């Protein structure tokens, strides 16, 4: 891939409008679940948290490793079977997957030691997931589920009715920050950047320690986009966003190429050449537009070639997928850059499930940030991408001051 041929993001000096008030450090809890208090009562096992997004459900499950003989005896067959089912499989049906490469082992959570598992499946399968929980007799147990995302509201009635459990709703932006803070401290390699994103032979990936007390932008790429200005773990605000996000990319790819999954869309995009679809500056000026410092390889018009019949006939499905990806990322990158300039920050953290199995998108964003800022603004990425809100949601209710001491991750 020649990143330089299609990754341009036009810089802008326009100011972004701040339209959101400061977030507060309190949860929006369901009436059936008491909000957290200073004297927390640690819930009984199993410990789940779930982030139900517009496109993807992210679930985290804590598997205890320090069960006492008494706890093992009283655990019961149902809970033991659930634990075995979740931890011994990597796939659940056709659409559910456990990201075993992301598993955090032998960590401390809520005063207990265990493994943290990360599971995902399409939001369209949420009713099937609830039915599976009934089939596994989860509804016979008395426990709490901590939920965030829009689906925490959408699916609350069905979950409570069928599973007879306590459904605790948490604010998704608060849990996002909470999860980022926790995992970045727990996992030394959580944050990273590419030193040479345009180098196909070696991107030069480096770990980076993120100080939550030093201001940065957090760009969460889900179905849509939310951009937060973070000054500390408790001081942050949503400053911008866009409706053109991960679901836009997948939806357009399905329409244009006939693909049916995110994995298929990303694979197509990685094989395509967007310059056969997009009109570049050099296609208009014959080279660079020197007066305004616009190099010939940047995009002047997304899908600009597609009004010509011969160009449409030459463009493959992979080319269309790549152009769709670049169009969406150009929009995200441009807005992020303007926000960084306005807020006077030099780090942009990109999170969200859209970046899963998606080095291509990370490299495009990294190159664009570095190029248009003359190296002043760094794009930072995260190993656990879209799971931060689910982890933060679990941490809202299960917390121990010693959780981050004597914890190791393998």
Q: Level of helix content?
A: 25-40%
Strand content: 15-25%
Largest sheet: 8 strands, mixed
Q: Assign the structural class, choosing from mainly alpha, mainly beta, alpha/beta, alpha+beta, or little secondary structure.
A: alpha+beta
- E-strand count: 17
The number of helices is: 12
Q: What order do the helices and strands follow?
A: EEHEEEEHEHHEHEEEEEHHEHEHHEHEH
Question: What is the general shape?
Answer: globular
Radius of gyration over alpha carbons? 22 Å
From the N-terminal CA to the C-terminal CA, the straight-line distance is 33 Å
Residue runs with pLDDT of under 50 for 5 or more positions:
1-32
**On the 0-100 scale, what is the average pLDDT?**
85
Topology record:
Elements: E1 47-52, E2 56-64, H1 69-88, E3 91-92, E4 96-98, E5 104-109, E6 112-122, H2 126-135, E7 144-148, H3 151-154, H4 156-163, E8 166-169, H5 172-186, E9 191-194, E10 205-207, E11 216-221, E12 225-230, E13 236-242, H6 246-257, H7 262-271, E14 279-280, H8 281-285, E15 299-301, H9 309-314, H10 317-343, E16 347-351, H11 359-372, E17 378-382, H12 388-397
Parallel strand pairs: 1-7, 7-8, 11-16, 16-17
Antiparallel strand pairs: 1-2, 2-6, 3-4, 4-6, 5-6, 9-10, 9-17, 11-12, 12-13, 14-15
Helix pairs in contact: 2-4, 5-12, 6-10, 7-10, 10-11
């Amino acid at each position: 891939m020649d990143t330089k041929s299609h990754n341009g993001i036009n810089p802008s000096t326009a100011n972004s409008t701040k339209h959101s008030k400061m977030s507060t450090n309190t949860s929006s809890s369901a009436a059936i679940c008491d909000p957290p208090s200073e004297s927390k009562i640690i819930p009984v096992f199993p410990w789940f948290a779930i982030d139900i997004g517009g496109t993807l459900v992210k679930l985290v499950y804590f598997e205890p490793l320090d069960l006492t003989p008494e706890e093992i005896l009283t655990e019961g067959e149902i809970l033991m079977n659930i634990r075995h089912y979740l931890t011994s499989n990597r796939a659940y049906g056709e659409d559910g997957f456990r990201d075993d490469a992301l598993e955090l082992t032998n960590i401390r959570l809520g005063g207990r030691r265990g493994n943290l598992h990360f599971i995902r499946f399409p939001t369209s399968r949420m009713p099937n997931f609830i039915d599976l929980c009934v089939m596994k007799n989860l509804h016979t147990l008395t426990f709490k589920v901590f939920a965030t995302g829009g689906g925490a509201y959408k699916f609350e009635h069905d979950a409570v009715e069928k599973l007879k459990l306590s459904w605790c709703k948490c604010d998704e932006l608060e849990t996002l920050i909470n999860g980022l803070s926790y995992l970045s401290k727990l996992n030394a390699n959580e944050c990273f950047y590419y030193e040479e994103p345009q180098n196909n032979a070696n991107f030069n990936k480096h770990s980076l320690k993120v100080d939550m007390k030093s201001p940065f932008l957090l760009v969460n790429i889900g179905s849509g986009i939310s951009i937060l200005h973070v000054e500390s773990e408790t001081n942050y605000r949503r400053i911008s966003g866009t409706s053109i996000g991960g679901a836009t990319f997948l939806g357009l790819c399905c329409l244009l190429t006939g693909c049916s999954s995110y994995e298929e869309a990303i694979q197509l995009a990685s094989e395509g050449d967007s310059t056969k679809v997009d009109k570049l500056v050099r296609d208009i000026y014959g080279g660079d537009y020197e007066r305004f410092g616009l190099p010939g390889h940047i995009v002047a018009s997304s899908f600009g070639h597609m009004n010509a019949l011969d160009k449409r006939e030459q463009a493959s499905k992979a080319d269309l997928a790549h152009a769709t990806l670049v169009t969406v990322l150009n929009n995200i990158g441009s807005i992020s850059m303007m926000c960084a300039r306005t807020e006077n920050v030099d780090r942009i953290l990109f999170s969200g499930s859209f970046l899963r199995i998606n080095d291509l998108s990370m490299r495009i964003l990294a190159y664009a940030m570095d190029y248009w800022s003359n190296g002043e603004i760094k794009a930072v990425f995260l190993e656990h991408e879209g799971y931060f809100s689910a982890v933060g949601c679990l941490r809202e209710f299960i917390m121990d001051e010693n959780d981050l001491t004597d914890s190791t991750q393998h």
